[in-house]
Design a protein that fits this description.
eight-stranded mixed β-sheet, 322 residues, 8 strands
Length: 322
């Protein structure tokens, strides 16, 4: 079953319907319409190329939020092997929005931490729409300390609109749990690779996002605030979200240029949901390439480079400063 089209993809859908009608007409009437069919196929390909090569930031956000887009557990199934999930933070409970455990990626045994959304209402309630609670971040920290103890690299898969802002999360100190993770990940004595696979929202993403290498899928986004939230603050209305998306510089290509992330992982034409397996293979290859480099470095070098990496962010250059 083909994924539901987004608004900006409807011209492609209309052309595909016309092509289908043309083929039916050719078959029913026994008319040779091969030339017309090939012409229509070329037009579809040209339209598809024009649309996907000129995506706006807001259109990429729509792709990142597509309900058919692969989630973390999909990548764990296709790109990783031998995944064994561990549960609980040993303080309060288990957070289904943050599955985590041991896995194998190629020749590497590793610890994987992830945000997980749901496909339907029931699963979204169980997964809290991918918005983790404090116990999720504390579970992640517990597993990161296991990774450090057993000298295993850490791989994180980020896909969250943000950490859960509810009363219960505040009572259990959501901001403190994220802050502790930021501090501890900066000092963790093992290699860390973070991958933004969909939404990378604010502190919820950063809570498992401090890493030696930060990668992003081509149509993911990573931002201090959602475009809707930014629009509500600056323009006083959420309808200005597309303008906010452009201003926030939240796409993978913007962030690579700004030095916030290290690499962009390509997606199939139209987005990861059009070919989840190929996307998983691309993610696997990109993470393995980083682990091949990072695992050869001394821990002292890793920590020094990680510190310098984040110290360089946010530097503002005035004209003439070079």
């Amino acid at each position: 079953m083909k994924p539901a089209p987004l608004d900006f993809e409807k011209p492609i859908l209309e052309l595909e319907k016309q092509l289908e009608e043309l083929r039916k007409h050719s078959k029913l009437q026994a008319i040779d319409l091969e030339r017309e069919v090939k012409s229509m196929e070329a037009k579809i390909e040209s339209t598809r190329r024009e649309i996907y090569q000129n995506l706006s930031a807001w259109q990429r956000i729509q792709i990142a939020r597509h309900t058919a887009r692969p989630f973390a557990l999909d990548y764990l199934r296709e790109a990783f092997t031998e995944f064994v999930e561990l549960h609980g933070d040993r303080l309060f409970g288990d957070d289904q929005a943050m599955p985590a455990g041991f896995a194998r990626l190629g020749q590497y045994r590793c610890v994987v931490l992830a945000h997980q959304k749901g496909r339907d209402t029931k699963e979204n309630i169980r997964r809290n729409f991918g918005s983790a609670h404090p116990e999720g971040y504390r579970k992640a920290l517990r597993l990161m300390r296991l990774a450090e103890k057993f000298q295993l690299p850490v791989v994180t898969l980020i896909d969250t609109p943000g950490a859960y802002p509810g009363v219960g999360a505040e009572e259990r100190h959501i901001s403190e749990s994220i802050a502790v993770n930021l501090r501890e990940m900066m000092q963790l004595r093992t290699a860390i690779v973070a991958v933004v696979i969909g939404e990378g929202g604010s502190g919820g993403a950063l809570g498992i996002g401090v890493a030696d290498r930060v990668l992003m899928l081509e149509n993911a986004y990573y931002s201090v605030i959602s475009p809707e939230g930014c629009a509500a603050i600056l323009w006083k209305h959420r309808s200005h979200a597309p303008e906010a998306a452009e201003a926030l510089k939240l796409t993978a290509f913007d962030l690579k240029q700004l030095g916030i992330i290290d690499a962009v992982i390509p997606e199939p034409t139209g987005g990861a949901h059009h070919d989840p397996l190929q996307t998983a293979l691309n993610l696997r290859a990109a993470v393995l390439a980083q682990l091949d480099v990072l695992t050869k470095k001394k821990v002292s070098v890793l920590l020094e480079e990680r510190y310098e990496k984040f110290r360089q962010m946010g530097r503002v250059l005035e004209p003439g400063m070079g």
